[in-house]
């Protein structure tokens, strides 16, 4: 299991209000996904260069298990300046808020990654460094992972 770094965020809906009384042109509904948890299935091949040193490389498929989501509304005036304050919902009626544009903001259900790593082993202790880089273009700003591991082998 691995948590995805960062969060996914995007405009999921734009509502054009044109409310002159409240100086509001439109509002954007922002959808945020965070705490993404993926199950990983790696397929890698390792090559041992000496008794102690090895490298590995391969592919990994990750499946989304869970995510947390939230939405927020951001209002804009007629000059497209962001309006701070109470936000949307306190003075808009659903019939006045037309037309509406919808956008698909979603967390990817599957991710494909290249994995590579180096390992050094001395007796019962093994230390390694692994890099995972996503092959998909997503809206996650930092969809790469660098991990350091330290193992102790019980006999």
What tags apply to this protein structure?
155 residues; mainly beta
Overall description:
The chain has 155 residues and is mostly beta strands. Helix content is 0%, strand content 65%. The protein contains no helices and nine strands. It has strands at 2-3, 8-19, 24-48, 53-76, 82-83, 100-102, 110-122, 125-134, 144-152. Strands 1, 2, 3, 4, 5, 6, 7, 8 and 9 form a nine-stranded antiparallel beta sheet that branches. A hairpin with a 4-residue loop joins strand 3 and strand 4. The protein starts with a strand and ends with a strand. The model is unreliable at 86-97 (pLDDT under 50).
- Largest pleated sheet: 9 strands, antiparallel
Euclidean distance between termini CA atoms: 27 Å
Structural class: mainly beta
Number of helices: 0
| Uncertain segments | 86-97
Q: How large is the share of residues in beta strands?
A: over 45%
Instruction: Please give the share of residues in helix.
Output: under 10%
Pattern of helices and strands: EEEEEEEEE
Globally, the shape reads rod-shaped
Produce the secondary structure layout.
Elements: E1 2-3, E2 8-19, E3 24-48, E4 53-76, E5 82-83, E6 100-102, E7 110-122, E8 125-134, E9 144-152
Antiparallel strand pairs: 1-3, 2-3, 2-6, 3-4, 4-5, 4-7, 7-8, 8-9
Question: TL;DR?
Answer:
With 155 residues, the protein is an all-beta fold.
């Amino acid at each position: 299991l691995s948590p995805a770094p960062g969060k996914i965020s995007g405009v999921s809906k734009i509502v054009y209000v044109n409310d002159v009384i409240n100086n509001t042109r439109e509002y954007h509904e922002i959808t945020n996904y965070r705490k993404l948890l993926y199950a990983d299935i790696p397929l890698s091949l390792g090559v041992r260069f000496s008794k102690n040193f090895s490298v590995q490389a391969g592919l990994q498929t990750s499946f989304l298990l869970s995510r947390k989501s939230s939405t927020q509304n951001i209002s804009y005036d007629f000059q497209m300046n962001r309006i701070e304050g109470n936000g949307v919902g306190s003075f808009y009626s659903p019939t006045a808020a037309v037309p509406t544009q919808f956008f698909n903001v979603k967390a990817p259900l599957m991710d494909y990654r290249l994995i590579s790593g180096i390992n050094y082993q001395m007796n019962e202790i093994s230390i390694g460094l692994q890099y995972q880089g996503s092959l998909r273009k997503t809206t996650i700003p930092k969809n790469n992972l660098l991990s350091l591991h330290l193992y102790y082998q019980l006999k």
